[in-house]
Amino acid sequence: xxSTRLLFGAxxxxxxxxxxxxGTPAASLGATRSSRTSTPQNVDVSQRHGNESETTVxxxxxxxxxxxxxxxxxxxxxxxxxxxxxxxxxTWATKLIGHGDNLGDACCDPSLSFxxxxxxxxxxxxxxxxxIPVALSTDGGxxxxxIAKINGIPKRxxxxxxxxxxxxxxxxxxxxxxxxxxxxxxxxxxxxPMGAFGAPVHGLGQVGSFDTREVIEGTNNxxxxxxxxxxxxxxxxxxxxxxxxQGGGKLFVNVDPDGxxxxxxxxxxxxxxxxxxxxxxxPPQPDRSVDAEPGLAWDxxxxxxxxxxxxxxxxxxxxxxxxxxxxxxxxxxxxxTWTDPVRVNDDHTTNSQFLPKIAxxxxxxDIAVTWYDSRLDLGNGGPGDTDGVPNDDAQYWGAFSTDxxxxxxxxxQISAGTSNSADAxxxxxxxxxxxxxxxxxxxxxxxxxxxxxxxxxxxxxxNELDIYTAAVPVRG
Length: 476
Ligand SMILES: [Ca+2]
Ligand SMILES: [Ca+2]
Ligand SMILES: [Ca+2]
Ligand SMILES: [Ca+2]
Fold this sequence. Notes:
- The chain is mainly beta.
- It contains two helices and 34 strands.
- Residues 3-36 and 158-166 have low confidence and may be disordered.
């Protein structure tokens, strides 16, 4: 969530919602499973009144039938929505977490990551504290315990990287957590620069302390970050250098070459100028705006493109044209140099594509990219237009790359219906990001949707949002 300083002030009242442990078996996938080329079966995970948005999803590599989704709920309600599936996303047990329970009072901004031991890590923001919570589940998301509340960067480690003298955080925003290769890392904007926090992992439930705490060099006012872990335990951060406004939006990466080892993050590397500011208003996201929402993936497969790092982001063609598109670049030298961008969306319109996610299947090296897409909203009615206004409705789309990011498949419409974020009256439209996981050939996106294409949204069509998901088989 961007600009949480303002939102913190607005959500100080204690909400009175309780008893929100609701078992909601979602619609069955049934016998008419979609073919490879048609829209996949959509499942309404949340099926709750009010808005759920800004979501994260993870697949358990030790049991790929175990899928977990967490999202924001609508302010001023504290807590986060959680859905847990043990049947590959067909049915979901759902509840509210972080609502005055052992996870505290959660504001928002959830980020999930499973590691190869089956540890499920969750970070988020508290309502009132500028500390960074890390929660761990060892039972596939059924229960979480808080394992860290990171409250600052010790001076000795600040001076090790030598670029900042802050101790305690004055502000935290949009954390991302990623676990792999025996380590877990959180990156967060800590009130100016990006902070990176790492802990060792030795097995299921065996997580060390977040003693590695660094300010990432050259990232002052660089935010909306993402973090990826490489095959040798290297760690890459990306962030977008822009605090506000609709222009600017330059993407930089920094790499820590030895992860939890003594070397700090290296110098920043400029990758792209996106024309997407920190708050870039586009018709399908009119209240909240979007940022470039850069995302990283790193190939640890040992396969054909081993060690390749990928970066996805939104680029606005002409500044303030609202013609945003989704691009991917890759690097074979740990982020030092990057290829030319490859455009992922294949439409011929000038409409908006936004809020992309990238995920790499570590069993194959294939890549999935998903995003909101307004290509079918020409304002002339039909299934892509809810209101006769062009480029203000959106669907959720995706594509795959099976050649290491050199090219992408024809795009696939993933959402069965068409949503309109303004109709949700959510304050943050669809939120600041969507979710995507990818494992053993199945991409698993999660997105906020008010199409009611499944007929299961208790608020009906074009009202408050539910979290939708689908299982999308890889296409070559
Ligand atoms: Ca712009
Ligand atoms: Ca476009
Ligand atoms: Ca429209
Ligand atoms: Ca809802």
